[in-house]
Amino acid sequence: MVKSLTTEDFIKAYRRFSARRGCPASLMSDNATTFRGAASVLAAEGVKWHFIVERAPWWGGFWERMVGLTKAALRRTLGSSLMLWDELETVLCSVESAINARPLTSVSDDPDDIQPLRPADFLHCAFERSEAAGRQSEQLTRRRRYQQRVVTSLWTRWQREYLRNLRDFRHNASKVDLEPAPGDVVLIEGERSSNRLAWTTGTVKTLHPGRDGRSRAATVHTLRGDVRRPIQKLYLLEAASPPEE
């Protein structure tokens, strides 16, 4: 989070990011004046900056989608309420951790190994899913409990919007309604968990068609055993391979 859109403030934020995550070999962005100015400064440090085509914001559709979903959830959650700078920064760091824990794709053909690959796996190898992330303590101050409620509400909204956007994206890309097939790793919507960073995933075992021949439900193998869920609650992973034509 930065206090202004100046190149100087961005470079400070970049320094903080690279100190925690390591220096990236290359960066990609739109053609904002802030980024253009930063690129000329960081070029001396060997950072390669790739810009998308001018006046073509859809070229950055992937990150614009993530930013848009987060902003929309933040506006709906906070509304007209006010937060101090450090409080908002703390909330956004928690949201960052949760978003980076979203599953991208399966990396194993073993049906019992459904641990997906996540953005966090590229940022820090020993990323831990803290079970305390969604819990509250009676010893916390009232303001801290308020921050936790904001994070929980924001994450719930973001997750719901993300799943809806994920299905719309796949429909628009393929022009058809894609259904999970046996062997696909899917996200399961609505599964309760005390851990905000945990997404419930599973491998589709069997499809259950309705009278019209279309799949209406599926048996999914999860770490807790087999469950039966409606197709509407199952989502293909973000980076799942498209069907072959």
Q: Quick gist of this model?
A:
InterPro entries: DUF5641 (IPR040676), Integrase_cat-core (IPR001584), RNaseH-like_sf (IPR012337), RNaseH_sf (IPR036397). The protein has 245 residues and is an alpha+beta fold. It is built from six helices and nine strands.
What brief labels describe this structure?
245 residues; alpha+beta; 5-stranded antiparallel sheet; 39% helix; globular; RNaseH-like_sf; nucleic acid binding; RNaseH_sf
Describe the structure.
This protein is an alpha+beta fold and 245 residues long. It folds into 2 domains: 55 residues, Ribonuclease H-like superfamily/Ribonuclease H (Nucleotidyltransferase, domain 5), CATH 3.30.420.10; 175 residues, no CATH class. It is 39% helix and 17% strand. A 5-stranded antiparallel beta sheet has the order 8-7-6-5-9. It is globular and about 60 Å long. The chain starts with 6 loop residues before the first helix and ends in a 9-residue tail after the last strand. About 5% of the residues have low confidence.
